[in-house]
Structure formats: C-alpha cells, structure tokens
Amino acid sequence: MKKVAAVVVTYNRKKLLKSCIENLLNQTFKTDVIVIDNMSTDGTREMLEDFIATKKIIYHSTGKNIGGAGGFYEGIKLAYMLNYDYFWLMDDDCIPTKESLNNLMKADKKLNGKYGFLCSKVLWTDGSLCKMNIPKANVFEKNSDFENSLVPVKMGTFVSFLTKRNVVKKVGLPIKEFFIWGDDLEYSNRISESYPSYLVNKSVVIHKTANNEGSNIATDDFQRINRYKLAYRNESVLFREVGIKGKFYQYARLILHTSRIIFKAPDHKKKRLETLFSGVREGSKFYPKIKRVK
To answer: pTM for the complete prediction?
Structure first.
C-alpha cells in the first residue's frame, strides 16, 4: 500500500486549517495528515487537541515562526523520516475536494511513477482559476491548458503538490532560508530539471485566499509591501539557477514592475520602489545551500 502524508503548514488560521484537515480526512484515497505549526498564537494548538488525541493527525510545532518555506522544509523532512512514500504539500487555506488525492494517484499509476511532481488544478472560491496558483509551462510562461488530463509543466505551487520519496532523496529539500514566497517555484523547477512533471486537471482543490488578484507590488495593500522584499530576493536564486535566460528575464521583469509602480501604484510609490530594488540587491548576495535528507 502506498503511504501518503499530507503535509499542511499553518500559522494563525485555525478555522481554515480545521476545514483543510476535515477535507483531508474525507479523501477517497486515504492519507495521513501531518500539521506543521509555525508557532501559531490564535489557539490553533487547542483547536487541534481532539485530532491529536484520536491520532487523526501528526502534530509538529516548529518552536518559532520559520515561514512557509521553513515549514515545508520541516514537513518533508519529518515525513521522509517517518518512511512515507509520497508527500502531498499544501497551505492551511487549501481545501481539497473529495477526489483530489485519488485523481493524483490515478495519474501516478498512469505514469508508472515516472515523474517528479504532480499538481492539482487550483480554483478560487468563486470557481475561477486561482491566479496565484497557475502552474508555469516554463520559467517564462504560465500554463494555459486546463482541459487535458495530464499537462506537462515546469513549475507549480505548494497548494496541492505531490512528490515522492525517491525525488526528495535526489533533489533535496526546499530552501528554508526563503522564509516565504518563491520556495515552491524554486523547488518545483529544481525537480523538473531532473524529472518530467505534470498538472493533473482532474484533481481539483479550492484555495481560500482573501482575493483572487495574485501578487502585485504596485497595487497590493501597503501593509503587505515589506514581504515583497523577500519575494524579489528569493526570485534571484531561481533566475540564477535558470542561467543566462533567467537573468535576462529577471531584468525585464524589473523594468516592468518598476513601470507598474510608477504609473499604477495608488500610494507610497517611493517605498514600493525601495522594496523592489532592495530585494533584488539582497538577492545578488543570497546563496542559500540546498540541504539533503539523511
């Protein structure tokens, strides 16, 4: 029997987490659930008491907030140590439908295990595609095929992302130093450099984000702007790994995003520009090491 661990990283979203867990426990293809708690302060641990006591989940507290990247690093490492064969990764606001995992595992069987990762079609709460979770056909283009059952992709997000033990053994773990943003793109690109990877359109999950606008430093709420520094820093690592084409693409995006701020930002244009350039500068000196499982 194939042993699957659903790895859910959470931080201060206990209501969404509860819904996520309940849907995971209701999958037609059974999975164990590992919750990685980034030291939530909203009563998450107390909410999980019954799940823990009845052994419906495996609970692991990181001891401090190490971000989504750190959470997935710890989650995969723990699942690997516990001898799971498959690692199904998701945020706490990902709500799987009943057949989500079953359809991923059908694809696993169809491909005879010859892939690096599989990702689900991610919808927003209104049934439209969730913009921040559209897989990339390559580093420069988003996928546009949401009809065929299996679609080759290069990059995906950690919102219903399935990979395997042998893949993790070869490529290592996500980069925990990213903290947030870009860890899934770098990791999926690293995997697909060695293995073909696919979007499974019959596997559907709902991503309960606050809105469906995606990330945009020019128009996002100013209170969220500081995190974009990490986004641009982390992307530098990805584009460096891609090579010369990646660097050219990074510079083109830099020009585009600068223009967006200048012409479309509703406020704090100077601070938005400073954040963008500061992130890129830090990225030029940011060389985190890829860690391996033991």
So the answer is: 0.96
**What's the longest Cα–Cα distance across the chain?**
56
Give per-residue burial for 83-96: e unless 16+ CB within 10 Å, then b.
ebebbbbbbbbbbb
Q: Which residues contact 240 (CB under 8 A, 6 or more apart)?
A: 246, 247
pLDDT in tens, 29-67: 999 999 999 999 999 999 999 999 999 999 999 999 999
Residue by residue, DSSP assigns 42-77 as: SSHHHHTHHHHHTTSSEEEE-SS--HHHHHHHHHHH
Q: Are strands 161-164 and 86-91 parallel, antiparallel or unpaired?
A: antiparallel
Query: Which candidate, 67, 91, 89, 65, places its Cα nearest to that of 77?
Result: 89
- Per-residue pLDDT reduced to its tens digit, 63-101: 999 999 999 999 999 999 999 999 999 999 999 999 999
